[in-house]
Specification:
Helix content: under 10%
Oligomer: single chain
Strand content: 35-45%
Pfam family, one: Lectin_C
Organism: Xenoophorus captivus
Keywords: Repeat, Signal
Low-confidence stretches: 1-25, 100-106, 552-556
Protein name: C-type lectin domain-containing protein
Radius of gyration: 40 Å
Shape: elongated
Mean pLDDT: 84
Length: 556
């Protein structure tokens, strides 16, 4: 292989010897509108059709109305069905079978493929004239039989994995998953049951096995779908004799999916990581050269190369965060296989660059936040870098809020609901703010002091002295307490004979605090105390004349 040098990303290619892999568990691939269970996909159709129209609708996708063969299947359906609606089942009169390997009792109901109803959940047993059945509303999902098959009900389609049916004028559609190829096991054209593909008539005809049969068409279907991952198999009817002229024929194909290619890589990586992409070819005894192309999904394509061994490894560095679909396509003269896998590339989380707090119309841009107790608080966070970021707020080691964002650079608001705020204590609470993602080894964190305040109520101030006695020193000591509202800032205004003094002190809680003023002022004093927080102010004037007028230290 020619050497390729790329300046925008790192590319290295190694060829490794083949290694053993455990057997891969078969995975059922269903569309977004379907649910997988027990080797089939189920579609719960909201349309309301008659029995035959519902069956025809299912047949267009290669399926049939649902069969309930055991209690597990019944329970699965009940989790998805609406109990106030009726739902058609794939039940019809047991008709003479056209195969020797199935047997039904004529006159009873059977599944559309002719198999007996060995498991049932009837409200009442079917009567002789009943010709179809459905799940009956408001009965706990029990079944009922009826002769009115033209009524329009909801229905469930069943698409069996590894088996498809195509009515006249349609192709048989087969699809395997990533890295798999089709292997056709059986195919016939004709009819083995009278209940499939009968949209052009309503009454069941009576005929013998000699009048309706089937033709083995395995070889032409294999030739058309050989080596493919998906296939729509048509038939050249001009070369075939119609095996069922009375009712018409259908094409039935049975197949399985064989692993042909493994694409192995991590699901999550950082923009600073070298990602290892391993491609393993599993189909041996092939003809021609093995040629592979790898598309990293970020705009870079590794040119077609010819692996010298069955396993090759590519190392690639993604230059930007995002979700990328990595695809590999390998071909030989007789095989063509593709495989795809998704990888998420994230940018590591950087340091906090924005921490803001907003509560009760007050915004702070700091590591301290004031908010009114009992009301919601918004914390705005932003990072220097990081994608797919999860923010978490902790108090005393317990998580009290979290939120996820695509980009950490864009500021994001986390709301502490009023119930969370009420669970915290009055006053100041130490919170830890953490940011993390899947490629950052340790969360990035910072601290926030959240002070939950109330309006200032019940301010009291007094001179700290015994009775009416004078203080035994020239210092003045004043005691201050609150009913609620702390922490607050206290503003003391002392007015003497000639001068005035203003000082500010902090009060962290509502209990009694003492504040001392050394040699404050000459003469009789008047003291005003204000208690202020961000939500309110309380003011109190303390008359010291009665206590201090006889004291020499404070005489005029």
């Amino acid at each position: 292989m020619d050497k390729v040098t790329l300046t925008t990303y790192t590319l290295m290619l190694f060829f490794l010897s083949s290694s053993c892999y455990g057997k891969k568990e078969e995975v059922i691939f269903c569309s977004e509108t379907q649910k997988a269970f027990g080797g089939a996909c189920y579609e719960f159709v909201g349309l309301q059709f008659s029995f035959l129209r519902g069956q025809t609708w299912c047949e267009r996708g290669g399926g049939h109305l649902v069969f309930i063969l055991n209690d597990e299947m019944q329970q699965f359906l009940q989790t998805h069905l609406e109990p106030d609606k009726d739902w058609w089942l794939g039940l019809a009169p047991a008709a003479p079978n056209l195969t020797l390997d199935l047997s039904s009792t004529e006159g009873s109901l059977a599944w559309l493929d002719g198999s007996d109803v060995s498991y049932s959940n009837w409200v009442n047993l079917p009567e002789a004239q009943d010709t179809c059945g459905h799940i009956l509303r408001h009965t706990g999902f029990q079944w009922t039989a009826t002769e009115n098959c033209t009524q329009e009900l909801n229905f469930v389609c069943q698409f069996d994995f590894g088996r498809t049916v195509a009515c006249e004028g349609h192709n048989a559609t087969m699809q395997c998953g990533s890295g798999q190829v089709l292997e056709i096991e059986d195919a016939f054209y004709g009819r083995k049951t009278v209940h499939y593909c009968r949209s052009h008539f309503t009454a069941l005809p009576t005929f013998s096995q000699e009048e309706c049969s089937w033709i083995n068409v395995l070889e032409p279907v294999i030739a058309h779908c050989r080596g493919l991952q998906a296939c729509q198999a048509p038939l050249d009817l001009s070369s075939l004799t119609e095996p069922c002229p009375v009712m018409g024929s259908y094409l039935s194909v049975e197949y399985h999916c064989k692993d042909g290619l493994h694409l192995l890589m991590t699901k999550l990586a950082s923009v600073v990581d070298n990602v290892t992409i391993t491609v393993k070819w599993l189909l041996h005894s092939f003809h021609g050269n093995l040629t592979c192309t790898v598309d990293a999904g970020d705009g870079y394509v590794i040119d077609p190369y010819n692996p010298e061994e069955m396993e090759s490894t590519i190392i690639h560095r993604f230059q930007q965060p995002g979700v990328f679909m990595v695809g590999v396509e390998c071909t030989t003269s007789d095989w063509h296989v593709t495989a795809h896998k998704t990888i998420t590339i994230q940018e590591p989380v950087g340091q906090f660059r924005v921490v803001k707090c907003h509560g009760s119309n007050v915004t702070t841009d700091d590591t301290k936040c004031n908010a009114l107790y009992g009301e919601p608080v918004q914390i705005q966070l932003g990072l220097e870098s990081g994608t797919n970021v999860t923010y978490t707020v902790y108090h005393n080691g317990c998580q009290i809020a979290n939120s996820s964002v695509d980009s950490g650079i864009t500021p994001h608001n986390i709301t502490l609901e009023d119930t969370v705020v009420q669970s915290l204590k009055h006053g100041c609470n130490n919170l830890t703010l953490a940011a993390s993602n899947g490629v950052t080894p340790h969360p990035v964190s910072t601290d926030l002091l959240l002070c939950l305040l109330e309006p200032v109520v019940g301010l009291q101030a007094l001179v700290m002295a015994e009775g009416d006695a004078c203080p035994d020193s020239p210092d003045l000591t004043i005691g201050v307490s609150l009913e609620r509202g702390a922490p607050v800032e206290l503003l003391f205004n002392l007015t003497g004979f000639r001068d005035a003094l203003t000082e500010t002190r902090n009060m962290l809680n509502n209990s009694l605090h003492t504040y001392t003023f050394s040699n404050p002022l000459e003469g009789p004093l008047k003291v005003k105390v204000q208690a202020v927080n961000v939500f309110s102010t309380s003011q109190l004037e303390v008359d010291l004349l009665k206590i201090l007028q006889a004291c020499q230290n404070y005489s005029s």
